[in-house]
């Protein structure tokens, strides 16, 4: 009888240890970053490194408001690198020239077809450079403007009028364009909006109000949520 009680005690002890170990790893999975997002480095001389504080601020906002577990610091990845496939979401910005080699265009295409997501954010002046380069990536696709009732505008935060205007340049309205491959948005292009400016540290652009910055972060969070769940 003593042996049976001793055996039961050991079983309970092992079971308790297993339960505690499982709980530890379960909680760990919610506290440790599970993935990173990256800024896309391209050739051509354009300032791919613009909006330096934008992504870390957006990441912090998403982790706090969406419950995501994104590593707090963004990475940098080159268009033609195999490391591109390590990031579910990549961000491209700048004002100037962009050049993709054939290898880079092919690599970016494979990444997007494999489930990756590219956000292109016109920092003013990018449009005439990025459109022909994305045509190298998807010759068969054209950018289409997404209507205001598209799901990207109704994720956690609601934007019934579509893409918000964050930073003023020349009075044109903000537009959200997409490349859609077999029903899936593989690239979202924010034009005349300057979304990334609104993600930067408060005060970087004094003319942008706190309300505009909040709108920018909320729209960015919608993009992250949409990219990870569509």
Overview of this protein structure:
With 230 residues, this protein is of the alpha/beta class. The chain folds into 2 domains: 32 residues; 195 residues, Rossmann fold (3-Layer(aba) Sandwich), CATH 3.40.50.12140. 39% of the residues lie in helices and 16% in strands. It has 6 helices and 7 strands. It has a 7-stranded mixed β-sheet. β3, α3 and β4 form a beta-alpha-beta unit. The chain is globular, with a radius of gyration of 22 Å. The N and C termini lie far apart (60 Å). The N terminus is likely disordered.
Summary tags:
disordered N terminus; 7 strands; alpha/beta; 6 helices; Rossmann fold; seven-stranded mixed β-sheet; single chain; 2 domains
Give the topology string: H per helix, E per strand: HEHEEHEHEEEHH
If you average the pLDDT, what whole number results? 87
Q: What is the molecular shape?
A: globular
Q: List unreliable stretches of 5+ residues.
A: 1-30
Which strand order spans the largest sheet, edge to edge or round the barrel?
2-1-3-4-7-6-5
Distance between the termini: 60 Å
Q: Which CATH class of the largest domain?
A: Alpha Beta
Q: Report the portion of residues in β strands.
A: 15-25%
Helix-residue proportion? 25-40%
Provide the number of structural domains: 2
Output the number of helix runs: 6
Q: Please name the CATH topology of the largest domain.
A: Rossmann fold
Largest sheet, if any?
A: 7 strands, mixed
**Strand elements, count:** 7
Task: Specify the structural class.
Answer: alpha/beta
Q: What oligomerization state is this entry in?
A: single chain
**Quick one: CATH superfamily of the largest domain?**
Domain of unknown function DUF4159
Architecture per CATH nomenclature, i.e. the level-2 architecture of the largest domain? 3-Layer(aba) Sandwich
CA radius of gyration: 22 Å
């Amino acid at each position: 009888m003593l042996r049976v009680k001793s055996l039961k005690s050991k079983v309970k002890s092992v079971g308790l240890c297993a339960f505690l170990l499982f709980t530890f790893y379960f909680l760990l999975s919610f506290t440790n970053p599970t993935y990173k997002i990256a800024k896309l480095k391209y050739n051509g001389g354009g300032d791919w490194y613009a909006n330096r504080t934008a992504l870390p601020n957006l990441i912090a906002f998403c982790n706090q408001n969406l419950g995501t577990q994104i590593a707090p610091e963004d990475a940098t990845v080159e268009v033609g690198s195999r490391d591109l496939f390590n990031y579910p979401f990549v961000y491209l910005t700048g004002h100037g020239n962009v050049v993709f080699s054939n290898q880079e265009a092919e690599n970016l295409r494979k990444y997007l077809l494999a489930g990756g997501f590219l956000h292109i954010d016109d920092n003013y002046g990018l449009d005439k450079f990025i459109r022909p380069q994305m045509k190298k990536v998807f010759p068969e696709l054209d950018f289409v403007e997404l209507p205001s009732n598209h799901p990207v505008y109704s994720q956690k935060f609601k934007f019934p009028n579509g893409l918000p205007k964050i930073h003023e340049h020349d009075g044109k309205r903000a537009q959200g364009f997409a490349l859609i491959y077999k029903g899936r948005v593989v690239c979202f292009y924010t034009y005349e909006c300057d979304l990334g400016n609104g993600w930067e540290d408060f005060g970087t652009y004094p003319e942008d109000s706190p309300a505009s910055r909040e709108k920018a972060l909320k729209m960015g969070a919608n993009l992250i949520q949409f990219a990870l769940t569509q």
